[in-house]
Amino acid sequence: SPVICWFRQDLRLADNPALLAATQSGAPVICLYVLDDKTPGKWARGGASRWWLHHSLAALSASLEELGARLVLRRGDAFEIVTGLASELGAQRVFWNRCYEPFARERDTSIKTRLKQAGCEAETFNGALLIEPWNLKTKDGGPYRVYSPYFRALAPHCDDIAPLPAPSSVTDGSQGVHSDALSSWSLLPSSPDWATGFGPVWTPGEDGARARLETFCEDAARDYADTRNLPGTDGTSRLSPHLHFGEISPRQIWHHAVSHVPAGKGRETFLKEIGWREFSYNLLFHFDDLPESNYQAKFNGFPWNFDETVFKNWTRGQTGYPIVDAGMRQLWQTGWMHNRVRMIVASFLTKHLLIDWRRGEEWFWDTLVDADLANNAASWQWVAGSGADAAPYFRIFNPVTQGEKFDEAGHYVREWVPELTNLPEKYIHAPWTAPADVLARAGITLGRDYPKPIVDHARARERALAAFSSLKDAA
Ligand code: FAD
After folding, report:
1. Interface ipTM above 0.90
2. Ligand 1 neighbours by CB, cut-off 6 Å
3. How far, CA to CA in Å, does 400 sit from each of 72, 312, 357, 419?
């Protein structure tokens, strides 16, 4: 009888322990992917992720075909589909790599139990992390809540990483098994097609991921410590969507970086960022309401002030602060935003506009191609000040000085906010400070061609600090 290899967030052939074990079982393999929009509830994949998923599945399907196997696509409740298929085909074993989202863990536990009752074994593996969250504990036996000691404990476990090879062939067991057509899932946007800017930027799939990693390690990794904060340069790896969908594993990245990038500040800083991803997963695993609830309970009484109009201004990149608007438009047009700018726009939403971080988290969930429950929740809480090892609340980014510091010549702003193209460097991050004749020469009427700031920085800062101290007073 056949075995099932259930692909989830591991859409690759190389360093895929579940796939390798399934092929080594000697039995014919059914390679399965299930699109389950029910189990995740409000965390069902957003629009941009669905675009990515479509292309990633197409790539995986083609690679499997080269090995002789077919990717079976099914849509619906994963519990029903996986347990149903196993019993229908008399499968003795089901292989998968673990997921860490609370809803996925709960579902997988039920599937395991049901399979066992039916005499079928679930064999599960670590395909997504450098170390399992339960294997890294503090001296007291509890989970790490602070990043630096976490990373110090993690790094020694990564020294001997040796990624697994891709199987050289897969004996297909899917004859007679129904598969949906990928196109019938309608994962791509049609009218309007808001993803026209995605294709030129991204190559979803394992080959695209590997090419990205190799180029980054060759060109940019050495200078990463200096360039990673400059949104106008190509200073970061852009591996995040590939990592989220498991087209590449953190083990492959770590191994490749250590063997191809000379030791030094660049490499060290890059590996620390991979460590931040692990830390986020560690947090999500141990604090499973991280996506919905303040990690620091004292934030539960925070006086958020939701205003639909300013929220819309933020989502559309119409706040009047060029660095914020550039980031929000880069996000909309490409499904990705530079990390420095993510921090600036998130700080702006939660502190200048006093809008609950969960609104920002949801917007990112829908618009990011790398939308990732652990990273998104941990990062939003980090910026909002409510998270574990978070930025102190009173550190409120000034969007003008942030722009001047990290996008000095305004290249990034000019790319994403073209109406400001002709504004001299001196005013590019604060157009409202430009004299009337300068604005006129640049062809800009504020309030018509580009918005005036929707909040005054100094006043917004005072308001945010007052909101925060009301919290302290209440505590
Ligand atoms: P690089 O700088 O090349 O870093 C390499 C890898 O390390 C990344 O691909 C990512 O997997 C990991 N990494 C880097 N920075 C972080 C970080 N701060 N936290 C956790 N992991 C990190 N990242 C996501 O993958 N998905 C999200 O949904 C997400 N939401 C975010 C929301 C906010 C408000 C903020 C401030 C950050 C968020 N991040 C998220 C983290 C970070 O911005 C992205 O991982 C990074 O910008 C991706 O670009 P890159 O691959 O070029 O990163």
Report:
1. yes
2. 228, 236-240, 243-244, 273-274, 276-277, 280, 339, 342-343, 346, 364, 368, 370-372, 375-376, 379-380, 383
3. 51, 21, 21, 18
